[in-house]
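Researcher: Sequence recovery benchmark, item below. Answer with residues only.
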């Protein structure tokens, strides 16, 4: 007689089902809000240095359209580092109940349609401004395929290239994991250790090199290091380690590993601040720690959101965050100067610019993006249908 043993995911699934209605079981609404906060932080960081008289970035003094934004907005770039931690957590969770083919299909469906739409909008905006058509078409083509070599049509695309490399690494680990023993969970745990250790050693080396004048922070900011996940691997590893800690009580070594990753992440933030000339490292670190604490509370405490209206709002904010992140930079930068010719008041100019950018993101999130996702999913499933997963499924999450 065979005795059925519940999977490790079963207690967590039952716990989630007991707290939330079936249609939202497994969905962490705190992640939706955190995504929106991270995207908003990056948006305000860029807006603070948009040019007033001509499309430009990193404008200062009277040339900056919104220099009156609060000082902490200058450290809003840490929203990118928050996204990387979120990716580590969500991607690790999304591997449960998925084959490696299904995982990669889901990642492609999630990332490409909005990218193609927003990159095309950026292309039209830049061509309409009088920029060389052929050069911009080349930038666009590199962006829509996430080429590891830029330049890109939009300044935020490089982060998606880094994300895609991480996805590919996880997919490869999933494909090899069952053959190595221990299934996906053990394989992903090993990946987190390797990724965090390699990135951490690199960051320590960078810090020592800068401190001893053996190298400059700018020289260590070579894009190739980012492509190898040496600069940001600690953030992905931290997210993966946090997910592993939510599945079972973390052992003392795992707790020490998480603490070490947090410290290494702060080290990378310091190096980034030195590279970009942001002297307020404390504010940047504080913003990142606040959002990290929000993530940890969201996935451990998981307070139930019982009001349907509030649940819907949080889900919409989560859906809005990706097209808002993708679509704010070029559109906002090229929109501000012509709007400034008809709107004198800087606060009103900011409000109008944000309204247009947010409206565009909302239209993308509720129109062409879901349509494109459906078409791409159908195409990819015909080309390479997903095989059954070797692991049990898990409640739906913010993936």
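Model:
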């Amino acid at each position: 007689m065979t005795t059925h043993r519940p999977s490790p995911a079963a207690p967590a699934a039952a716990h989630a089902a007991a707290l939330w209605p079936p249609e939202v079981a497994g969905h962490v609404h705190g992640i939706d809000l955190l995504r929106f906060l991270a995207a908003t932080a990056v948006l305000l960081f860029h807006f603070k240095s948009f040019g007033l008289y001509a499309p430009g970035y990193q404008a200062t003094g009277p040339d900056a359209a919104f220099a009156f934004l609060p000082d902490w907005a200058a450290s809003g770039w840490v929203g990118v580092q928050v996204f990387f931690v979120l990716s580590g957590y969500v991607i690790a969770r999304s591997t449960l109940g998925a084959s490696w083919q299904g995982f990669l299909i889901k990642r492609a469906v999630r990332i490409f349609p909005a990218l193609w739409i927003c990159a095309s909008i950026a292309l039209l905006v830049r061509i309409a401004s009088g920029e060389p058509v052929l050069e911009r078409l080349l930038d666009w083509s590199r962006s829509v395929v996430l080429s590891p070599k830029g330049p890109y049509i939009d300044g935020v695309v490089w982060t998606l290239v880094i994300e895609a490399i991480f996805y590919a690494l996880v997919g490869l680990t999933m494909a090899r994991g069952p053959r190595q023993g221990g299934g996906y969970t053990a394989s992903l745990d090993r990946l987190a250790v390797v990724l965090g250790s390699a990135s951490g050693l690199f960051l320590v080396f960078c810090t020592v090199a800068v401190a001893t004048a053996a190298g400059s922070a700018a020289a260590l900011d070579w894009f190739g290091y980012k492509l190898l996940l040496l600069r940001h691997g600690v953030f992905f590893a931290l997210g993966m380690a946090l997910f592993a800690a939510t599945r079972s009580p973390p052992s003392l070594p795992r707790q020490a590993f998480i603490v070490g990753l947090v410290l290494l992440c702060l080290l990378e933030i310091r190096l980034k601040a030195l590279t970009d000339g942001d002297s307020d490292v404390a504010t940047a670190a504080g913003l990142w720690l606040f959002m990290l604490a929000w993530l940890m509370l969201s996935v451990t405490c998981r307070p139930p959101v019982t009001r349907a209206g509030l649940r819907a709002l949080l889900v919409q904010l989560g859906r809005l965050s990706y097209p808002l992140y993708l679509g704010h930079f070029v559109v906002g930068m090229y929109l501000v100067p012509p709007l400034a010719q008809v709107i004198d008041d800087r606060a009103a100019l900011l409000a109008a610019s944000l309204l247009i950018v947010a409206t565009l993101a909302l239209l993308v999130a509720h129109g062409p993006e879901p349509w494109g996702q459906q078409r791409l999913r159908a195409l990819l499933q015909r080309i390479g249908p997903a095989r059954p997963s070797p692991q049990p499924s898990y409640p739906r999450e913010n993936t």
